[in-house]
Amino acid sequence: MSERKSQNDREPFVHPQMIMIYLILAGVTTLFLGFALAYAYTRFDQGAPAIKLPWLFFPSTVVLWYSSYLLKKVKIAYEEDDPETFVKMLRWTLITSLIFLVMQCAGWIELITTGIPVTYSTLASYIYVISAVHLGHVLLGLPFLIIYYFKSKRRLSGELESMVFFADPDPRRHLKLLSIYWIFLDRLWIGLMIFFWVNWLIPGA
Fold this sequence. Notes:
Low-confidence stretches: 5-10
Shape: elongated
Number of strands: 0
Protein backbone atom coordinates (compact mmCIF):
# COMPACT_ATOMS: atom_id res chain seq x y z
CA MET A 1 0.00 0.00 0.00
CA SER A 2 2.86 2.39 0.81
CA GLU A 3 4.40 1.74 -2.61
CA ARG A 4 1.08 2.57 -4.25
CA LYS A 5 0.79 5.84 -2.34
CA SER A 6 4.35 6.88 -3.13
CA GLN A 7 3.72 6.20 -6.81
CA ASN A 8 0.61 8.39 -6.75
CA ASP A 9 2.45 11.12 -4.87
CA ARG A 10 4.95 11.34 -7.73
CA GLU A 11 2.27 12.05 -10.37
CA PRO A 12 3.30 15.45 -11.80
CA PHE A 13 -0.10 16.54 -13.14
CA VAL A 14 -3.80 16.46 -12.47
CA HIS A 15 -5.45 13.77 -14.57
CA PRO A 16 -7.77 15.16 -17.29
CA GLN A 17 -10.65 13.11 -15.86
CA MET A 18 -10.30 14.98 -12.56
CA ILE A 19 -10.43 18.33 -14.36
CA MET A 20 -13.48 17.15 -16.29
CA ILE A 21 -15.40 16.04 -13.19
CA TYR A 22 -14.78 19.36 -11.44
CA LEU A 23 -15.92 21.29 -14.51
CA ILE A 24 -19.08 19.14 -14.66
CA LEU A 25 -19.80 19.74 -10.97
CA ALA A 26 -19.26 23.47 -11.39
CA GLY A 27 -21.83 23.48 -14.19
CA VAL A 28 -24.29 21.40 -12.14
CA THR A 29 -23.87 23.76 -9.18
CA THR A 30 -24.62 26.76 -11.40
CA LEU A 31 -27.68 25.02 -12.82
CA PHE A 32 -29.22 24.24 -9.43
CA LEU A 33 -28.33 27.65 -8.03
CA GLY A 34 -30.28 29.14 -10.93
CA PHE A 35 -33.22 26.82 -10.17
CA ALA A 36 -33.19 27.81 -6.49
CA LEU A 37 -33.05 31.54 -7.25
CA ALA A 38 -35.84 31.20 -9.81
CA TYR A 39 -38.00 29.31 -7.29
CA ALA A 40 -37.45 31.94 -4.58
CA TYR A 41 -38.05 34.84 -6.98
CA THR A 42 -41.23 33.30 -8.40
CA ARG A 43 -42.57 32.52 -4.96
CA PHE A 44 -42.12 35.98 -3.47
CA ASP A 45 -43.02 37.76 -6.70
CA GLN A 46 -46.36 35.94 -6.73
CA GLY A 47 -46.76 36.08 -2.95
CA ALA A 48 -47.57 32.38 -3.02
CA PRO A 49 -47.15 29.91 -0.16
CA ALA A 50 -44.36 27.39 -0.57
CA ILE A 51 -45.15 23.84 -1.61
CA LYS A 52 -44.84 21.33 1.22
CA LEU A 53 -42.42 18.60 0.25
CA PRO A 54 -43.62 14.99 0.23
CA TRP A 55 -42.72 13.12 3.41
CA LEU A 56 -40.78 10.48 1.47
CA PHE A 57 -38.23 13.05 0.32
CA PHE A 58 -36.85 13.19 3.88
CA PRO A 59 -36.07 9.49 4.40
CA SER A 60 -34.77 9.33 0.82
CA THR A 61 -32.31 12.08 1.78
CA VAL A 62 -31.05 9.90 4.62
CA VAL A 63 -30.69 6.98 2.21
CA LEU A 64 -28.64 9.06 -0.23
CA TRP A 65 -26.45 10.33 2.61
CA TYR A 66 -25.90 6.74 3.75
CA SER A 67 -24.98 5.78 0.20
CA SER A 68 -22.19 8.36 0.09
CA TYR A 69 -21.10 7.27 3.60
CA LEU A 70 -20.79 3.69 2.35
CA LEU A 71 -18.69 4.92 -0.56
CA LYS A 72 -16.29 6.44 1.96
CA LYS A 73 -16.08 2.98 3.54
CA VAL A 74 -15.23 1.62 0.08
CA LYS A 75 -12.30 4.04 -0.12
CA ILE A 76 -11.08 2.96 3.31
CA ALA A 77 -11.27 -0.69 2.31
CA TYR A 78 -9.29 0.11 -0.84
CA GLU A 79 -6.56 1.85 1.15
CA GLU A 80 -6.37 -1.15 3.48
CA ASP A 81 -6.25 -3.68 0.60
CA ASP A 82 -9.38 -5.38 1.97
CA PRO A 83 -11.14 -6.98 -1.04
CA GLU A 84 -14.02 -8.53 0.93
CA THR A 85 -15.06 -5.29 2.62
CA PHE A 86 -14.36 -3.35 -0.57
CA VAL A 87 -16.83 -5.40 -2.63
CA LYS A 88 -19.39 -5.59 0.18
CA MET A 89 -19.47 -1.82 0.77
CA LEU A 90 -19.54 -1.16 -2.96
CA ARG A 91 -22.51 -3.51 -3.34
CA TRP A 92 -24.42 -1.74 -0.54
CA THR A 93 -23.60 1.64 -2.08
CA LEU A 94 -25.26 0.44 -5.26
CA ILE A 95 -28.28 -0.99 -3.41
CA THR A 96 -28.90 2.18 -1.37
CA SER A 97 -28.59 4.29 -4.53
CA LEU A 98 -31.31 2.21 -6.17
CA ILE A 99 -33.48 2.54 -3.05
CA PHE A 100 -33.07 6.33 -3.29
CA LEU A 101 -34.33 6.28 -6.88
CA VAL A 102 -37.41 4.27 -5.90
CA MET A 103 -38.16 6.55 -2.94
CA GLN A 104 -37.87 9.67 -5.09
CA CYS A 105 -40.39 8.28 -7.57
CA ALA A 106 -42.65 7.34 -4.64
CA GLY A 107 -42.31 10.93 -3.43
CA TRP A 108 -43.69 12.22 -6.72
CA ILE A 109 -46.60 9.80 -6.44
CA GLU A 110 -47.21 11.11 -2.92
CA LEU A 111 -47.34 14.68 -4.27
CA ILE A 112 -49.81 13.68 -6.98
CA THR A 113 -52.08 11.78 -4.57
CA THR A 114 -52.20 14.81 -2.25
CA GLY A 115 -53.56 16.93 -5.11
CA ILE A 116 -50.31 18.57 -6.25
CA PRO A 117 -49.54 17.41 -9.81
CA VAL A 118 -46.84 19.06 -11.88
CA THR A 119 -49.43 21.44 -13.36
CA TYR A 120 -50.73 22.52 -9.93
CA SER A 121 -48.70 25.75 -9.91
CA THR A 122 -45.40 27.24 -11.05
CA LEU A 123 -43.83 26.42 -7.68
CA ALA A 124 -45.03 22.82 -7.90
CA SER A 125 -43.46 22.59 -11.34
CA TYR A 126 -40.15 23.76 -9.86
CA ILE A 127 -40.32 21.01 -7.21
CA TYR A 128 -40.83 18.36 -9.87
CA VAL A 129 -38.22 19.77 -12.25
CA ILE A 130 -35.51 20.30 -9.62
CA SER A 131 -35.98 16.86 -8.06
CA ALA A 132 -36.18 15.24 -11.53
CA VAL A 133 -32.98 16.92 -12.74
CA HIS A 134 -31.18 15.82 -9.57
CA LEU A 135 -32.53 12.29 -10.04
CA GLY A 136 -31.31 12.44 -13.64
CA HIS A 137 -27.78 13.16 -12.44
CA VAL A 138 -27.98 10.18 -10.08
CA LEU A 139 -29.12 8.04 -13.03
CA LEU A 140 -26.20 9.33 -15.10
CA GLY A 141 -23.73 8.24 -12.45
CA LEU A 142 -25.38 4.89 -11.76
CA PRO A 143 -24.05 3.03 -14.85
CA PHE A 144 -20.49 4.00 -13.89
CA LEU A 145 -21.07 2.70 -10.37
CA ILE A 146 -22.54 -0.56 -11.68
CA ILE A 147 -19.69 -1.08 -14.14
CA TYR A 148 -17.09 -0.30 -11.47
CA TYR A 149 -18.72 -2.77 -9.09
CA PHE A 150 -18.82 -5.70 -11.50
CA LYS A 151 -15.35 -5.03 -12.93
CA SER A 152 -13.90 -4.79 -9.42
CA LYS A 153 -15.69 -7.94 -8.28
CA ARG A 154 -14.35 -9.85 -11.28
CA ARG A 155 -10.79 -8.63 -10.75
CA LEU A 156 -10.84 -9.47 -7.03
CA SER A 157 -11.51 -13.17 -7.59
CA GLY A 158 -8.24 -14.37 -6.04
CA GLU A 159 -5.32 -13.30 -3.86
CA LEU A 160 -2.96 -12.60 -6.75
CA GLU A 161 -5.67 -10.78 -8.70
CA SER A 162 -6.42 -8.65 -5.62
CA MET A 163 -2.76 -7.65 -5.29
CA VAL A 164 -2.70 -6.58 -8.94
CA PHE A 165 -6.00 -4.70 -8.55
CA PHE A 166 -4.91 -2.68 -5.51
CA ALA A 167 -1.58 -1.87 -7.17
CA ASP A 168 -3.29 -0.58 -10.33
CA PRO A 169 -3.74 3.24 -10.28
CA ASP A 170 -6.77 3.13 -12.59
CA PRO A 171 -9.26 1.61 -10.08
CA ARG A 172 -8.02 4.11 -7.49
CA ARG A 173 -8.64 7.06 -9.83
CA HIS A 174 -12.03 5.77 -10.92
CA LEU A 175 -13.06 5.29 -7.29
CA LYS A 176 -11.99 8.84 -6.51
CA LEU A 177 -14.06 10.17 -9.41
CA LEU A 178 -17.10 8.19 -8.28
CA SER A 179 -16.67 9.38 -4.69
CA ILE A 180 -16.40 13.03 -5.70
CA TYR A 181 -19.50 12.81 -7.88
CA TRP A 182 -21.61 10.78 -5.43
CA ILE A 183 -20.75 12.88 -2.38
CA PHE A 184 -21.44 16.03 -4.39
CA LEU A 185 -24.92 14.77 -5.33
CA ASP A 186 -25.54 13.90 -1.68
CA ARG A 187 -24.51 17.35 -0.42
CA LEU A 188 -26.42 19.02 -3.24
CA TRP A 189 -29.67 17.20 -2.38
CA ILE A 190 -29.29 17.95 1.33
CA GLY A 191 -28.77 21.63 0.45
CA LEU A 192 -31.88 21.62 -1.74
CA MET A 193 -33.94 19.99 1.01
CA ILE A 194 -32.83 22.63 3.50
CA PHE A 195 -33.65 25.34 0.96
CA PHE A 196 -37.18 24.03 0.36
CA TRP A 197 -37.77 23.46 4.06
CA VAL A 198 -36.69 27.02 4.97
CA ASN A 199 -38.88 28.34 2.17
CA TRP A 200 -41.83 26.42 3.56
CA LEU A 201 -41.25 27.94 7.02
CA ILE A 202 -41.17 31.50 5.66
CA PRO A 203 -44.68 32.84 4.96
CA GLY A 204 -45.38 34.20 1.50
CA ALA A 205 -45.15 37.91 0.91
